[in-house]
Each structure stands twice: as structure tokens, then as C-alpha cells.
Amino acid sequence: MKILIADDHELFRDGLRHVLDQLGGPLTIVEASDFQQAIETVERETDIDIVLLDLSMPGMVWNDGLQRLKELLPERVPIIILSASDDRRHVLQAVNLGAAGFIPKTSSSRVMLSALKLVLSGGVYLPPALLEQASHGEAGGPMANENAVSFLTPRQREVLALLGQGKSNKEIARVLQLAEGTVKLHVTAILKALNVNNRTRAVVAASQLGLTTPDASQLGR
Questions:
Q1: pLDDT value for 44
Q2: Domains of the chain (ranges plus CATH)?
Q3: Where are the beta strands (DSSP E) in the chain?
């Protein structure tokens, strides 16, 4: 697995290397200290599996830098934001631009590893505090409304609820006793119904709509 760490603080990059060593398995880490280096690295290294990106780097406005990286990377490669900022507006902006998750730099190594494993498995990680705010309508405006959800089938609501917990397609398939291909079809329908373009935004939408806890009595039916 090849990971790009893009952060302008060498000390943080060194510390993150030690955390990533705990992922196990063969690991190649490449580094960049500003947005221009990150873009050049992505253009040069075509086999990167995941990008860990700090928003506060020199070289570009962060949202332009994130958009450029998304354009260059294959869709399968997730970009996770690592930031000391707790500005919820920035988090949601990053989500809107296609980030697969947001890990505060204040997180413990255990939380960081769990978040990385979740994203690598196809899930989404967002700070619990952000999702709690979203569920109370405080995270920067709704991305979906109840009318949109009314078009979802009961099974799709269950899938959305599990998406809202950040679960991957494989985990959702296991919980609901469905084929993974069936889950993918449900996720596609959910994104279309909610008018969002990635599962990270669907997670936020599910939280805003209070759908993060599925009805246990309905699961698996």
C-alpha cells in the first residue's frame, strides 16, 4: 500500500509515519510539504492508494488544491483531511469537494488508525462532534430534506442509516444480509435521491435527517 502524506510540518509527518507503521503489511510512504509538491507527487506516483492531506499548506488555497488532487487521482483513491482546524464549515466544504473523511490532528493514534482502516475498507470517517452538530442542523445548512428521503424504500433507508454510521458496503451487506452488489445499487439510488455526489455527503445528510440509527427490528428483513 502506498500512502501520500501531504503536510508542511516535518515533525507531524514523522509522527504520522510511526502511527501508519501500525497498519501492518508492506507500506510505502511518500511525502509532500506543500500543495504544489503534493500535485507533482500525484502526477509522478500513479499507484498511490490513499492521501492524507493537511488543509493549511502553502502554495495554493486549500479548496483549489483539494479539487486539483481529486481531478488527478483515480476515483477509487480516497483523500482524508488531517487538520488542526475545527472549523465545521471547512469540514463540510471538504466533504462537498469529495474528501472521504476528516480526522482532527488532536485525535489519538488509536482513533486515527481506526479511521484509516474504515476509509480503506470503503467507509467514511467524520468527527462525532460534527455529526452531532449536523443532526441538530448546525453544520452549515441541510444537504437533503425529508421529501427526498420519502422516495427511498425501507431497505434503502436502512442502508442510509448504516451509511450514516460510516460503514463500508461490505459491512452494510453483512449487517443486512445482502449481496455487496445489491448494497452498491442501493447506495447509488440513495445518492441520487439525496442529490449528493459521494457517500461522505450522504453520511452528513443521514445525520441531519436523524437517520444514523436504524430500526434494529427491521435489519436483515
A1: 93
A2: 2-120 (3.40.50.2300), 134-208 (1.10.10.10)
A3: 2-6, 28-32, 50-53, 79-83, 101-104
